[in-house]
Each structure stands twice: as structure tokens, then as C-alpha cells.
UniProtKB/TrEMBL annotation:
It comes from Punctularia strigosozonata (strain HHB-11173). The keyword Oxidoreductase applies. The keyword NADP applies. Pfam families: adh_short_C2 (PF13561). This is Short-chain dehydrogenase/reductase SDR. One of its GO terms (molecular function) is quinone binding. It comes from the Eukaryota. The lineage of its organism: Eukaryota, Fungi, Dikarya, Basidiomycota, Agaricomycotina. Belongs to the short-chain dehydrogenases/reductases (SDR) family. InterPro entries: KR_dom, NAD(P)-bd_dom_sf, Sc_DH/Rdtase_CS, SDR_fam. Keywords: NADP, Oxidoreductase.
Length: 290
């Protein structure tokens, strides 16, 4: 790892010329749009072979087509991350195609907002299932491909896990008892993985995003939705909050992030530049909450 880090911090080599993630394989869930799409595109640009996973197979394939058109390599794997067979399906596709796995980015998710006193069990349970249980099950299933002791004297491959959290998980948020609880839980999960898998050279980190311009932070009145269990769940926040100048109050940079900026933080954590960073929660908030 030290040799690889040397390559990317000023000693330009053929490997660096091919990107920070040259020859590595990354699974990115929820990669058909928003932060996930930007992450998949950026990883591919940096030389990774990307497994683009999403509930919407057509959109996932469109991202793969975009990557290939730019000279990168990727495959699409459609599926619900909460399905019992999802880990088996995506890992089989990954290993069959590329023969190994370096990184998992557990990005897939959505919000199902209700005030706590009116929140039904199903709204709480589905958010916990997608944001906590699903990452846990995928990481557990990937153990044979990540918990690999390096041959004595050999430089271990760069291997990592990034779980996406939120400022809601750090500070709570009105109307998001379910989401806040799930995003807090994933931080504890990540720290545990860091401790258990560190001896195998696997790093595990969390990103807590603040306001990023995605369908989850745009006006609910725009009509974005996701179908869960045959029911349509509206995404976004009320227009009066999404579009008000007050929405940016408390952010020192005075704006939200773009999905591409969010993807940059993802790249940092999986890259050799973060070779000694594990168990950390990186706040990508424009300074909000400091």
C-alpha cells in the first residue's frame, strides 16, 4: 500500500496515469442517479471496473453505457438491496466477471418521512432494512473476497468499504426518526467492520452527507417517488423548505453540494490517499454543524 500511495502523491507512474483505482473492482449500490451515478462515473474515470447496481435496471444500464462510451469498464446488476438473495446475486455477477472485489459503496437508500407520533411501523422497518440490514448482509457475504491475508512480503491490495450516512444520523432531524436512527446505526456498523477486518487490510469508513442536490432534497411537489412493497413513496421535502433561502442557513459555504462533489469524497475514502483512514465518519456538509 505504501508503494501505491507513493505513486499517487507525486511520483507519476504508468499506474497513476491510469487512475487512482487502476485495476480495482468496485460495487456501488444505488448507482443509477444522484450521488451513486456520479460515484460510479468517477470511479470508472479513475480506472476502476464498476458494478453499477440499482433498483432501476434500465437506468443502471444507462450509466454503464455512459462509462463504456468514455472508455471505462462496468456492468449493471439490477435488484433490490433489501432482497434476501441480493448479496449472492451481485457478488456472483462481480466475481464471475472480474474475479475479485476491492470496494463496496453502500449508497442505496431513500427517505420515508413522517412525524414520530404518526409514523407507522412499516415506515420505520423499511428504512432500517434498506439502510442498515442491507449493508450488513452485503458486507457479510463479501467476507471471502475481502478478508484476505496478503502473501508475506507482498503489498496488499487496496480494499475498503464505504457506508453512506447523513447529518440526520449525527444530529437527528424533524420527521426522520426512522432515517436518523438508521443513519446512526450504520456508523456503529462501520466502526465494527473497521475493527474486525482491519487485520486483513480492509478499511471501513462512513460518509455523513449534508445537503446534496438529489431527488431526496428537491421539492416533494416535483413528483419523485419510489415503489416499495407495491406502494408509491414520495421523495423529497416540502417545496417551501427545499426552495427557501433559509434552507442554506447554517452552511458556511452558503450552498448545497452537487452529486459530483459528493462523489469526490467517496473517491478519497476508497483511494490509496486514505490508506491509513479507517473507522472514520467524514462529514461532507459545507461546514454545517461545526
Amino acid at each position: 500500500m505504501a508503494d501505491r500511495l507513493k505513486q499517487v502523491t507525486g511520483h507519476l507512474t504508468n499506474s497513476y496515469g491510469r487512475g487512482l483505482l487502476a485495476g480495482e473492482v468496485a460495487i456501488v449500490t444505488g448507482a443509477a442517479q444522484g450521488i451513486g451515478r456520479s460515484t460510479a462515473l468517477l470511479f470508472a474515470k479513475e480506472g476502476a471496473r464498476v458494478v453499477v447496481s440499482d433498483l432501476d435496471g434500465a437506468k443502471a444500464q444507462a450509466v454503464v453505457d455512459e462509462i463504456k462510451a468514455a472508455g471505462g469498464e462496468a456492468i449493471a446488476v439490477a435488484g433490490d438491496v433489501g432482497a434476501d438473495d441480493f448479496p449472492k446475486v451481485i457478488l456472483h455477477a462481480t466475481i464471475s466477471k472480474y474475479g475479485k472485489l476491492n470496494h463496496i459503496v453502500n449508497n442505496a437508500g431513500f427517505t420515508f418521512d413522517k412525524m414520530l407520533h404518526t409514523m407507522p411501523d412499516e415506515a420505520y422497518d423499511i428504512i432500517m432494512k434498506i439502510h442498515v440490514r442491507a449493508p450488513f448482509r452485503l458486507i457479510r457475504a463479501a467476507a471471502p473476497y475481502l478478508r484476505i491475508k496478503a502473501t508475506e512480503g507482498a503489498t496488499p491490495e487496496n480494499r475498503s468499504i464505504v457506508n453512506v450516512s447523513s447529518t440526520s444520523g449525527l444530529h437527528g432531524n424533524v420527521g426522520q426518526a426512522n432515517y436518523a436512527a438508521a443513519k446512526a446505526a450504520v456508523i456503529g456498523l462501520t466502526k465494527t467492520v473497521a475493527k474486525e477486518w482491519g487485520p486483513f487490510g480492509v478499511r471501513a469508513n462512513t460518509i455523513a452527507f449534508g445537503r446534496v442536490d438529489t431527488r431526496l432534497t428537491r421539492a416533494k411537489e416535483d413528483g419523485a417517488s419510489i415503489e416499495i412493497g407495491g406502494k408509491s413513496v414520495a421523495l423529497g421535502i416540502p417545496a417551501k423548505l427545499a426552495n427557501s433561502s433559509g434552507a442554506m442557513v447554517g452552511i458556511p459555504l452558503g450552498r448545497g453540494a452537487s452529486p459530483d462533489e459528493a462523489a469526490g469524497a467517496m473517491l478519497f475514502l476508497v483511494s490509496p490517499l486514505a490508506s491509513f483512514v479507517t473507522g472514520h465518519t467524514l462529514e461532507v456538509t459545507g461546514g454545517a454543524g461545526i
